[in-house]
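TEACHING EXERCISE
Course module: macromolecular assemblies
Task: Read the component lines below, then compare them to the predicted structure of the full complex.
Student: A.B.
Group: 4
Components provided:
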Amino acid sequence: MGQLDERTFESTVAAGCPACKAATLEIKSFIDRRVLLMLADPNDAGRWVHDGEKFVDGTYSITCPSCKHTVFESDMCPRCNAAGGLANALGDRSRLPIPKRCPSCNELELLALALVPATARYGGGPSPKPQPLAEYGEPGHHMVAYACESCDNAVVTQKCPLCDAPGPLRPRP
Ligand SMILES: [Zn+2]
Ligand SMILES: [Zn+2]
Ligand SMILES: [Zn+2]
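Instructor-supplied answer key:
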């Protein structure tokens, strides 16, 4: 499990800001993004493929956009819970190199899965879509795995994709 369980997350978000009573809170979380790559360049902006449980699991900060009060924050790695790992997760570039072509069949197109920091506002209306805080190639945008749909070759990073701590990684919800 991450640093917040779903019940704690739900009650924290439902309560709004304890300082100024605003209903809307800003959540930051590392969540799953699928990116299609052609010759190691993104073919599209990618799309989110997380669910609500994974959003809660990756949460590392909850703040109030109105008064800047910090409701929750943790510097642990959001993926493996290593102490102080958040700084590496946000500051480092992806450590899993994506080849230009599939190493086994030479296909040009690869499907990659990334963990990307995102922000979303909760409360006071329907939840908007998370906005990515890092794009492909920027610090914080970490490749977790890539796969070739032509030959089913797949490569998954064995260390923590966010902070580089050695595996095995804790299970995610
Ligand atoms: Zn506030
Ligand atoms: Zn292949
Ligand atoms: Zn980690």
